[in-house]
């Protein structure tokens, strides 16, 4: 078994046949694609499904017992839209026992005149899916076991699975009965059956007694999904998305890994752009301070205004005038009451408290910046305006 597991892959096909009750035996069959090898087994009940969960990353098909599945052929009057599932359900509700809303209805096939449907109770569907979920088995397909039997027009197909007979009496219909009941019915030879059909059943019965459950599952495997039937439809479609859980997880991890790489590259790119912007700002800042030295760079205590004057070029503007005035006002160490800016006049006006005339005259003498004129206007409230024009 361990050697066989080493060779399995998602391309291989695992078939599990479920009964209608948790204590009924469960059969499984594993076929390697492209190889002649296979493996099969029988589980005593649904609890033992966990014993084969390590095979569940294959393509898993579930065959369900047809014992409690209803098959109906519905006539489409006046070309009713077959996608109207409510119409189809209520059209055969009177032929079953129970509320049709408690059944999961599946369209098997339709043509111009008829629609073939199957119905199974939601409770039973939930049981099957719960058994598989508890065992950690993800599935891709769920179909009735009788629909995997070979079918020939006007002839029944039957297959013996341990003590149970599976009979397909139509393209989209069938049933199952116990071996003891089947033997009694066969002895009676129902008059409704044609001679050809009875003889065909007799021939198949002799052959069926000679095969075991492994051979039966092998026959079913050859006919799976030829008609495109899948009970994982409607509200149960979401279970189909889990059919490749292992590879879905791998894809999710791969996507997360690629997303992380993308985020890292984006972070590095943004970091590079930020560094570039910082370099640009540094160049602009150096250029600005080269043109407008900060007050800390000027040794005003030594009145080294010639250094400042020489650092400026002839192209004066408002910023230059503001810078010149700030150097002068700071040297006065006098409180500023208000500042007025006049773009039209090209002037900056500082209103200051009056100081000793000698101190102010000395500062004005030291101020000699080409392109900037300075004037003083005294007010009656012992304040004066220093006007810098450019």
> Which value, in Å, is the CA radius of gyration?
47 Å
The largest β sheet comes out as:
5 strands, mixed
Tell me the CATH architecture of the domain at 13-148 and 210-243. 2-Layer Sandwich
Assign a percent range to the helix content: 25-40%
The N- and C-terminal alpha carbons lie at a distance of 98 Å
Mean pLDDT reading: 76
Determine the number of helices (DSSP H or I, runs of at least 4 residues). 10
Which structural class best describes the helix and strand composition?
Answer: alpha+beta
What is the spatial order of strands in the main beta sheet?
A: 3-2-1-4-8
**Which fold name fills CATH's third level, the topology of the domain at 13-148 and 210-243?**
Nucleotidyltransferase, domain 5
Text of the CATH class of the domain at 13-148 and 210-243: Alpha Beta
Q: Rough shape? A: rod-shaped
Provide the β-strand percentage band: 15-25%
Count every beta strand, where a strand is a DSSP E run of 2 or more residues.
Answer: 15
Q: Which blocks of ≥5 consecutive residues have pLDDT under 50? A: 1-8, 190-201, 311-316
Following the backbone from N to C, one meets helices and strands in this order, namely HEEEEEHEEHEEEEHHHHHHEEHEE
Task: Draw up the topology in text.
Elements: H1 2-5, E1 13-18, E2 26-31, E3 38-43, E4 59-64, E5 70-75, H2 85-91, E6 103-110, E7 114-121, H3 122-135, E8 141-144, E9 157-161, E10 164-170, E11 173-178, H4 179-188, H5 195-208, H6 213-221, H7 245-291, H8 305-311, H9 318-332, E12 336-342, E13 347-353, H10 357-366, E14 373-378, E15 383-389
Parallel strand pairs: 1-4, 4-8
Antiparallel strand pairs: 1-2, 2-3, 5-7, 6-7, 9-10, 10-11, 12-13, 13-15, 14-15
GO biological process, one term: protein secretion by the type II secretion system
Domain GspL cytoplasmic actin-ATPase-like: 14-237
Pfam families: T2SSL (PF05134)
């Amino acid at each position: 078994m361990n050697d066989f597991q080493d060779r399995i892959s998602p391309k291989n096909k695992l078939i599990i046949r479920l009964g209608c009750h948790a204590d009924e035996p469960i059969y499984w069959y594993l076929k390697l694609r492209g190889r002649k090898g296979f493996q099969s087994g029988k589980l005593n009940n649904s609890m033992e499904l966990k014993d084969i969960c390590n095979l569940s990353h294959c393509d898993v098909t579930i065959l369900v017992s047809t014992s409690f599945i209803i098959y109906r052929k519905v006539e489409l009057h006046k070309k009713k839209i077959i996608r109207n599932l409510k119409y189809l359900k209520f059209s055969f509700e009177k032929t079953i026992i129970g509320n049709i809303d408690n059944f999961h209805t599946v369209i098997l096939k339709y043509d111009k005149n008829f629609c073939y449907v199957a119905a199974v109770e939601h409770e039973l569907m939930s049981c099957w899916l719960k058994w598989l979920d508890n065992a950690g088995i993800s599935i891709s397909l769920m179909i009735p076991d009788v629909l995997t039997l070979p079918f020939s027009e006007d002839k029944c197909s039957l297959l013996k699975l341990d003590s149970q007979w599976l009979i397909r009496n139509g393209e989209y219909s069938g049933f199952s009965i116990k071996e003891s009941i089947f033997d009694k019915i066969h002895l009676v030879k129902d008059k409704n059956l044609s001679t050809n059909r009875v003889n065909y059943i007799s021939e198949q019965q002799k052959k069926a007694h000679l095969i075991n459950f492994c051979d039966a599952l092998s026959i079913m495997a050859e006919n799976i999904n030829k008609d495109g039937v899948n009970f994982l439809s409607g509200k149960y479609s979401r279970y189909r998305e889990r059919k490749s859980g292992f590879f879905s997880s791998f894809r999710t991890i791969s996507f997360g890994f690629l997303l992380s790489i993308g985020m890292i590259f984006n972070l590095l790119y943004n970091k590079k752009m930020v560094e570039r912007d910082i370099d640009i700002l540094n160049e602009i800042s150096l250029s600005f301070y080269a043109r407008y030295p900060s007050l800390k760079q000027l040794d005003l205590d030594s009145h080294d205004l010639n250094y400042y004057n020489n650092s400026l070029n002839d192209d004066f503007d408002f910023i230059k005038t503001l810078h010149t005035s700030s150097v002068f006002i700071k040297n006065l160490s006098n409180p500023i009451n208000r500042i007025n800016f006049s773009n039209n006049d090209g002037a900056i006006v500082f209103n200051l408290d009056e100081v000793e005339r000698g101190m102010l005259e000395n500062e004005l003498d030291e101020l000699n910046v080409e392109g900037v004129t300075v004037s003083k206007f005294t007010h009656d409230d012992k304040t004066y305006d220093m006007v810098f024009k450019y």
